Amino acid sequence: MELNLPDISLRQTHDLLNLVETTLQGICYRKFADKELYVEALQKVLGNSSKRGPESVFIVFKVPENNSLRGRVFYLNGDALVEGRDDLY
User: Fold this and answer.
1) What is the pTM of this model?
2) Is 3 helix (H, G, I), strand (E, B) or coil?
3) Distance between CA atoms of residues 70 and 58, nearest Å
4) What is the tens place of the pLDDT at every residue in 23-79?
């Protein structure tokens, strides 16, 4: 049976969700300092030079002081996680 495009997209989304779930289960009981938690989680999702995930990840943060949202883009440069310089509003 040949898969059509929606089936392929659904399968890729399912595989990505399984990867995220497995990664989060592996780190949920560990203690992290400062930004270590999200850096490790983002590196797992984005992959590395031999196993690539999505090109970038956009994370949205809620700003409680003024009930607004801001975001930041994260991507890989080689195997290093790079955080975009500018906040996005």
Assistant:
1) 0.49
2) coil
3) 10
4) 777 766 666 566 676 777 788 888 776 777 788 888 887 888 888 888 888 888 877
- For the chain, what's the residue count? 89
Task: Give the pairing type, strands 68-77 and 56-63.
Answer: antiparallel
Angle between helices 5-27 and 36-46 in degrees, nearest 10: 150
State phi, psi for 74 to the nearest 5 degrees.
-120, 140
Is residue 69 within 8 Å of 61, Cβ to Cβ?
Answer: yes
AA identity, residue 11? R
The upper half-sphere exposure of residue 16, i.e. CA atoms within 13 Å in the direction of its Cβ, equals 14
Single out the residue of 74, 68, 73, 70 nearest to residue 60, CA to CA.
70
Other beta carbons within 10 Å of 73? 16
